[in-house]
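Structure (tokenized):
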């Protein structure tokens, strides 16, 4: 695997050069303890400097670089919308808890936040007239045709960690997101 992200790149450079993978890259950095998204230091500080300032060593830097470059190497299927196995398992558990076993997942966007749009996930018990239906991990995903061009290629994951738990969307079409990560734009 060719290394595309290096320790001498600034956080800003990483997101500028790889906007289509920005959400997944940001999640990996956060998982490693870097919360640089939206931080003014991230525009000037290299990845290496940022990790050193957070008390991390060369081994941790190399581990993060390996993870970030593996994200860049991941293939993105731009013809579908999918769930990770972990997200599917969690969604099925929620359906059982809500006594909605067999229902589908409704995925879309609404106006909100400082960047203009935010995702929503909801239950769906029937296909609407303007829906496109995807199947992933045994779950139907209902998406309104108006949002389809922006949402194709999205992967819905479930993250459970010390900094919180919830469904996280990786969308290769997003060009910018707010510092808090709740809204995005194209």
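Design, position by position:
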């Amino acid at each position: 695997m060719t290394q595309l992200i290096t320790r001498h790149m600034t956080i800003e450079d990483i997101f500028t050069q790889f906007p289509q993978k920005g959400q997944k890259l940001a999640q990996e950095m956060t998982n490693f303890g870097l919360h640089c998204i939206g931080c003014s230091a991230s525009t000037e500080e290299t990845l290496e400097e940022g990790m050193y300032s957070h008390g991390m060593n060369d081994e941790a830097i190399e581990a993060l670089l390996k993870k970030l470059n593996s994200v860049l190497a991941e293939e993105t299927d731009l013809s579908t919308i999918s769930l990770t196995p972990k997200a599917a398992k969690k969604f099925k558990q929620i359906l059982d808890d809500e006594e909605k076993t067999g229902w589908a997942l409704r995925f879309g966007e609404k106006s909100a936040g400082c960047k203009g749009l935010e995702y929503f996930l909801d239950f769906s018990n029937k296909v609407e007239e303007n829906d496109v239906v995807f199947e992933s991990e045994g779950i139907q995903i209902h998406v309104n045709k108006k949002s389809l061009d922006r949402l194709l290629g999205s992967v819905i994951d479930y993250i459970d960690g010390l900094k919180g738990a919830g469904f996280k969307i990786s969308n290769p079409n997003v060009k910018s997101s707010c510092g808090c990560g709740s809204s995005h734009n194209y």
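Reviewer-requested clarification: The radius of gyration is 18 Å. Helices lie at 11-17, 22-31, 47-53, 58-73, 85-97, 148-151.
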